[in-house]
Amino acid sequence: MPEDEKKVVHWTSGEEADLVVFLLEQRAAGNQAKSGFKPIVWHAVSERLALNHPKEVKKSIECCKSRCQRLKGEYCIVCELCEQSRFGWDEAKQLMTTPHNTWEKYTASHPKAKPFHHKSFPLFDDIASLIDAIVATGAGALHMAGDDEQDEGPLDNIDPVMCGRNGITVGGNDNDGSVSSNTETPAASNKCAHNGGPPPGVK
Asked: Where are the extended beta strands (E) located within 83-167?
């Protein structure tokens, strides 16, 4: 689809939470193959979101896959921030913390991190669990790519070095929106160096 014909799809925080929780449920139910989630899962995700959020625009299967990848990309960014010595994590607010001048200096060379100066990331723990679960199955690589239904402010072209440090491989597009790793991924607790050291698997 031509770039100017792509639809910008808005997601609420409730829809994002439902997406991640449902994928965790489906993983626990055994609906995940080594190549990623089974096709029936993405159809069920789309239908569940439509049922639980009737006032929102229905999210297509491809849109759900795209949003899942975006959330995993944001997870990569937060993990990278947690490696920085002057960055901390406010558990109550689910928010990164650091002096303003430190943010300015860091985001000058890492512009994709800018939103997290004021944006909370309450799904960190759930996404960590989802990624750890998929890693255990040996699924394919985490991919960041746009779809015909484009999320607002897409996180394509995520730095592969950044995510690689956290045990997540970033590559091109695939058909099932799967993730994998050949090293340990960060756990949900002990996120930042300010809070007791970097997460496991983060050097």
From this structure: 88-90, 95-97, 142-143, 149-151
Backbone angles phi, psi at 137, to 5 degrees: -90, -10
Annotated domain spans of the chain: 6-195
The two tokens of residue 109 are 């060379």
Instruction: Give the Cα separation of 179 and 189 in Å (integer).
Output: 21
Q: CA 59, CA 57: separation in Å to the nearest integer?
A: 6
Kindly report, residue by residue over 31-80, the tens digit of the pLDDT. 887 778 989 999 999 999 999 999 999 999 999 999 999 999 999 999 99
Residue-wise over 132-156: b if at least 16 C-beta within 10 A, else e? bbbbebebbbbbbbbbebbbeebbe
Phi-psi region of 136 (alpha: psi -120 to 50; beta: other; left: phi over 0): alpha
CA 177, 172, 164, 16 torsion-angle sign? negative
Determine contact, residues 131/75, Cβ cutoff 8 Å.
Answer: yes
Strand extents, DSSP E, the chain: 7-9, 32-33, 36-37, 88-90, 95-97, 142-143, 149-151, 170-171
Q: Report the predicted TM-score, pTM, of the whole model to 2 decimal places.
A: 0.69
Q: Where do we find the tokens 């190549």?
A: 35
What percent of the chain is helix, strand and coil (3-state, nearest 5)?
45, 10, 45
